[in-house]
Design brief:
This protein is α/β, with parallel strands linked by helices. Helix content is 43%, strand content 9%. A four-stranded parallel beta sheet has the order 1-3-5-6, with helices on both faces. Helix 4 links the parallel strand 5 and strand 6.
Length: 434
């Protein structure tokens, strides 16, 4: 039985690939779908019972001979709310490991929650063999139908899957892992804000240093999200919530790093005021106090009237004031640094700045022209030596110029050879990397 395997193109699968897995009945394969939902009427406490039922159903499915378990939250409707996919997957993984049957089945997750690289990485890191982010895939197809994304839909979905897998490679490479097989189930994460009892039971082996919420709180959050989608519509609120998951938003969720805490901390540091720093600590520890302070800050700023578009400066005038002269080779490449140079200025040479008054001599910048060999990989120029501190022709004796002639000829020959080698062939562009 260990010799029979299903080969997938990658860990992220689209709806067609999932349908093939669900329909396969050849040889020893026998997939089954386990729903990741629980009744809304059970309330927040129903999440714990739902997770226990899911774990027992997974164990029973393996006893019945099923060896591909598809954990799916497609059954969400007005009366059923989804179990968080990561919680469901990890709970099943740990339950089967404890029962000694984990190696008898593969786990596939079909979820609407996963849409970003980190979401997929978490699911794979906690045991998923493949992930089908069906809501994100359906959204890509919808964007193609609205002509907001180049089509056809299959090509756009393939680009999305490719982008997610590229992100997974980057995540794994930072951990020194080169294969999905090594990353799957490795649990190289740390839990922040989860109760220790919850982590020990359903995320066994994951470090959790500060504790936090449990299953009841997770159930309450799941019901809140469900109510926003299936609850009664508020006529006064015709916009989707901003969320503010990654960055603080005025109408989003509260962050510890918000305008109130930032302003208080800056005032404490600049003035050396211990009382201000104590207020900063209170704002971080007391969410109600922070919310009241934020409301006070924004209530002081009245809503400004809208500005007419004809009063706004056009883009063509604004970009004229954009310059990159103050950026170094350490932050941008040499090509980008030299792009804004004058029309007649040779590439690689310092910009000549002229004084404002008429008749003044040109002034050269101190940074000088350097041969490419004197720049490191980041494009930074090496130390200035001797007469190289100024651009322009090198000053030396006639004997020195004659001595340099053979080396210059060899360098020119090498450049010509490289140019010839690089131009050989049919002239067709190189194939794009997969």
């Amino acid at each position: 039985m260990q010799c029979h395997q299903l080969r997938l193109a990658g860990p992220v699968i689209d709806n067609h690939d999932l349908a093939k897995i669900r329909a396969v009945r050849e040889g020893v394969f026998d997939p089954v779908t386990l729903p990741l939902v629980w009744p809304v009427s059970d309330g927040p406490d129903g999440l714990a019972a739902a997770v226990d039922r899911l774990c027992r159903a997974a164990a029973a499915a393996i006893d019945d001979g099923h060896n591909v378990l598809i954990l799916s939250d497609r059954g969400v409707d007005a009366r059923h709310v989804a179990i968080p996919s990561l919680l469901a997957l990890s709970a099943v993984q740990q339950y089967l490991v404890a029962a000694g049957t984990r190696m008898q089945a593969g786990l596939v997750v079909e979820t609407a929650e996963a849409r970003e690289v980190h979401d997929i990485a978490l699911l794979i890191g906690y045991g998923a063999a493949a992930v089908n982010p069906y809501l994100a895939i359906d959204l890509v197809a919808e964007l193609v139908a609205r002509d907001r994304v180049p089509g056809p839909a299959d090509a756009a979905i393939a680009r999305y899957v490719h982008a997610i897998e590229d992100g997974l490679r980057k995540v794994m490479s930072k951990m020194g892992i080169s294969t999905i097989q090594s990353y799957r189930g490795a649990q190289i994460f740390e839990a922040v804000g989860l109760d220790r009892e919850l982590v020990d039971r359903h995320f066994t082996g994951t470090p959790s240093r500060i504790g936090g919420i449990g299953l009841a709180e997770l159930g309450g959050e799941a019901l809140e999200r469900h109510a926003r989608g299936f609850g009664p519509a508020d006529p006064a609120d015709d916009e989707l919530p901003t969320g503010g998951l990654y960055q603080w938003r005025r109408r989003g969720e509260l962050h510890k790093w918000n305008p109130a805490t930032i302003a208080t901390l800056q005032a404490a540091v600049r003035l050396g005021d211990r009382a201000q720093f104590a207020e900063f600590e209170r704002l971080c520890d007391d969410e109600d106090r922070a919310l009241a302070t934020l409301r006070g800050l924004f209530e002081l700023v009245p809503d400004a009237p809208a500005i007419a578009l004809d009063e706004v400066e056009p883009v063509g005038e604004i970009v004229k004031r954009f310059v990159t002269g103050a950026m170094s080779f350490g932050s941008i490449s040499a090509e980008a640094h030299e792009t804004p140079r004058g029309r007649d200025e040779p590439a690689g040479r310092a910009v000549q700045l002229r004084r404002g008054r008429r008749g003044a001599a040109p002034v050269r910048t101190r940074r000088a022209w350097r041969p490419a060999a004197q720049r490191d990989q980041a494009g930074r120029v090496g130390p200035v030596r001797g007469h190289d501190s100024l651009p322009g022709p090198r000053r030396g004796s006639a004997d020195q110029d004659r001595a340099r002639a053979p080396s210059r000829a060899r360098a020119a020959s090498c450049r010509a050879t490289r140019s010839t080698i690089g131009s050989r062939g049919s002239g067709a562009p190189p194939p794009a990397s997969p």
